[in-house]
């Protein structure tokens, strides 16, 4: 009886001991295999830290970390932000740094097991966010015991494919196999814009804005550093509604001439009223590059049929148009000019500053309203006759009534017949102007009510 | 003294009448009236006669985002109004001229995109949560 009670007490103690051991195993860190052969397990208590990534290409990256205090660590990866299973103690996993080739643990793939501090992973998808878990473990005997409490979780995007290595993803790279070129930005984004000049500045004229009419567009090629590589300008001379032999030029505001390697395509043969730098920009323009496009519009579009002007009288012969193409090289085959590079943020649409040189009188420039003159402009014209420019406050080429001598339309538009006031042809222009641009901002678009076609030369 | 006051009153009244008449030539019933001659236009001193509108583009990057991609502004027809290579971890700001008649644009970056109205004058492209 007494022995039976002793046996009963021993069995109860054994049962309590098993319950205690099971509880410790669940809460860690001590695990006992059986009652008679207990093993003390210490789980890692310091997780990995300081993750960093090296992006080999769009499908391969290397993860580095500072190890924790486990004897080793397992690295898991998933495109999901959470994992739905954890590595189990004593389980065996196959690691493979080729994503998808190792063991699966729930929705994660095993990339690495070992005692190192990095793994180079391949076979990832480009432009995808991957999540990584680095979990320390201690190896006891032949089993690993994982610290699922102090683990490192990190994530990163893979990059996009870039065949030429210029950092511009192929999907965005207009020149995917040319590391020196990446983007082409065109202004206007399609077609042409139109420049319209009155040429009697500083006096006022007849406001038909057809003394010189040109269409223009330009494309800027830039590289992976967002620097301008080259630029192509196209000018289509359409009409000459005045008898002055005007030259046409443009200034690149904020672009120093020594940042341009070469200029080609200008119609300046025989010009005597200015000189040029070896790179083709105008000489003695220290602050902003100036390009003379042509020296005389009448060289390009001669009069015909006994008419005084060109293409502004519907009864006169159609002389056609002339196209002048200017090419500017900035970075020549990777070689940066002496003045350095030009950022695309400098050479944006606002930097384009077209103007005429009235009757080839070099100091007499007519620019768009509030555009700055070149360094060769004769400032003595400002404030004379009808001009009310005030250089000190940045006010240029405006009359006392704030009227301009030139207009820049962001799309190609028909111009007026000779001696037709611009307002007679563009019916909503005056409302746009007098509302300071708030009303009828699309006055130049060919929509009902915007134009009186009988006042326009439409070809 | 009363005569002086009368002259001052008449002077001010005259000025106001002239101003009112001038305003009437531009506005009628609160609406701007079209003019027949360019030389008659009355515009504000700061008006720059530009058929483009200025748009401020602000890109807010995210730390540790390694992506590098083109930041673009395009319209519904795929015309590109702005583009540059942008690092996702860097901020960037610029001003862009957009034709005044354009009413819808879309920014895109690394597969993300969103439509917006450029007439608001400002667009913020943020990768931050």
Labels describing this entry:
heterodimer; A: 459 residues; mainly beta; Immunoglobulin-like; seven-stranded antiparallel β-sheet; elongated; B: 129 residues; alpha+beta; four-stranded antiparallel β-sheet; three-stranded mixed β-sheet
Please write the string of helix (H) and strand (E) elements of chain B.
HEEEEEEEEE
Number of strands of chain B: 9
Q: Biggest chain pair contact, residues each?
A: A-B, 61 and 49 residues
Strand tally of chain A is 22
CA-based shape of chain B: elongated
Order of helices and strands of chain A: HEEEEEEEEEEEEEEEEHEEEEEHHE
Major β-sheet of chain A, in short? Answer: 7 strands, antiparallel
The number of distinct helices of chain B, counting runs of at least 4 residues, comes to 1
Percentage of helical residues of chain A?
A: under 10%
Tell me the strand percentage band of chain A: 25-35%
What fraction, in percent, of the residue positions of chain B are helical? 10-25%
Largest sheet of chain B, in brief, is: 4 strands, antiparallel
Can you describe what's shown?
The complex is a heterodimer of chains A (459) and B (129). Chain A is 9% helix and 29% strand. Chain A has helices at residues 2-27, 297-300, 422-425, 429-434; strands spanning 49-57, 60-66, 72-78, 104-105, 108-114, 118-121, 129-140, 143-146, 152-157, 183-187, 193-197, 212-222, 228-239, 247-252, 262-264, 289-294, 322-329, 352-357, 365-367, 406-409, 415-416, 456-457. The model of chain A is unreliable at 12-37 (pLDDT under 50). The N and C termini of chain A lie far apart (124 Å). Chain A is elongated and about 115 Å long. Chain A has three domains: 1-29; 49-157, Sandwich (Immunoglobulin-like), CATH 2.60.40; 183-420. Chain B has one helix at residues 2-26, and strands at 27-28, 31-32, 52-60, 68-74, 80-87, 92-99, 105-109, 112-116, 122-126. A four-stranded antiparallel beta sheet of chain B has the order 5-4-7-8, with no helix packed on it. A three-stranded mixed beta sheet of chain B has the order 6-3-9, with no helix packed on it. Chain B starts with a helix and ends with a strand. The chains are: A mainly beta (459), B alpha+beta (129). Chains A and B meet through strand 10, strand 20, helix 3 and helix 4 of A and strand 4, strand 5 and strand 6 of B.
């Amino acid at each position: 009886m007494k022995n039976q009670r002793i046996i009963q007490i021993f069995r109860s103690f054994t049962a309590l001991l098993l319950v205690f051991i099971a509880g410790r195993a669940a809460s860690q860190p001590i695990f006992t295999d059986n009652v008679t052969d207990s093993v003390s397990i210490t789980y890692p208590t310091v997780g990995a830290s300081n993750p960093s990534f090296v992006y080999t290409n769009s499908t391969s990256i290397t993860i580095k970390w500072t190890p924790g205090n486990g004897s080793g660590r397992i690295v898991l990866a998933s495109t999901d932000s959470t994992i739905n299973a954890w590595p189990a103690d004593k389980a065996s996993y196959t690691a493979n740094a080729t994503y998808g080739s190792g063991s699966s643990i729930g929705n994660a793939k095993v990339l690495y097991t070992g005692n190192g501090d990095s793994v180079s992973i391949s076979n990832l998808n480009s432009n995808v966010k991957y999540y990584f878990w680095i979990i320390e473990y201690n190896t006891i005997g032949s089993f690993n015991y994982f610290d699922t409490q102090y683990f490192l979780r990190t994530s990163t995007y893979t990059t996009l494919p870039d065949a030429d290595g210029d950092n511009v993803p192929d999907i965005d790279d207009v020149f995917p196999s040319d590391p020196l070129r990446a983007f082409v930005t065109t202004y206007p984004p399609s077609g042409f814009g139109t420049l319209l000049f009155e040429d009697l500045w500083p006096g006022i004229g007849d406001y038909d804005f057809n003394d010189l009419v040109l269409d223009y567009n330009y494309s800027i090629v830039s590289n992976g550093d967002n620097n301008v590589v080259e630029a192509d300008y196209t000018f289509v001379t359409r009409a000459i509604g005045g008898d002055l032999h005007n030259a046409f030029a443009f200034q690149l505001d904020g672009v120093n001439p020594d940042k341009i390697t070469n200029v080609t395509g200008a119609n300046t043969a025989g010009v005597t009223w200015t000189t040029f730098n070896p790179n083709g920009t105008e000489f003695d323009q220290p602050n902003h590059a100036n390009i003379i496009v042509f020296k005389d519009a009448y060289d390009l579009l001669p009069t015909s049929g006994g008419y005084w002007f060109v293409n502004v009288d519907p009864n006169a012969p159609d002389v056609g148009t002339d196209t002048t193409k200017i090419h500017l090289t900035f970075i020549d085959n990777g070689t940066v000019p002496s003045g350095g590079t030009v950022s695309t943020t400098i050479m944006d649409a606002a930097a384009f500053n077209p103007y005429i040189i009235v009757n080839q009188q070099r100091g007499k420039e007519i620019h768009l309203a509030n555009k700055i003159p070149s360094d060769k402009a004769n400032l003595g014209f400002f404030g004379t006759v009808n001009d009310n420019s005030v250089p000190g406050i940045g006010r240029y080429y405006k009359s006392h009534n704030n009227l301009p001598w030139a207009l820049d339309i962001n799309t190609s538009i028909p111009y007026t017949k000779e001696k037709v006031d611009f307002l007679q042809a563009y019916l909503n222009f005056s409302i746009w102007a007098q509302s300071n641009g708030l009303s009828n901002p699309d006055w130049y678009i060919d929509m009902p009510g915007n134009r009186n076609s009988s006042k326009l030369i439409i070809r | 003294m009363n005569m002086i006051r009368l002259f001052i009153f008449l002077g001010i009244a005259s000025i106001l009448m002239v101003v009112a008449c001038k305003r009437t030539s531009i506005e009628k019933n609160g609406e701007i009236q079209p003019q027949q001659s360019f030389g008659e236009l009355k515009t504000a001193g700061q008006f720059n006669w530009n058929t483009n509108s200025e748009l401020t583009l602000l890109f807010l990057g995210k730390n540790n985002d390694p992506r590098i991609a083109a930041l673009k502004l395009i319209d519904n027809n795929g015309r590109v109004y702005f583009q540059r290579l942008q690092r996702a971890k860097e901020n960037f700001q610029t001003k862009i001229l957009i034709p005044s008649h354009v009413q819808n644009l879309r920014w895109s970056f690394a597969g993300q995109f969103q439509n917006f109205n450029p007439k608001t004058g400002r667009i913020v492209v943020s990768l931050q949560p």
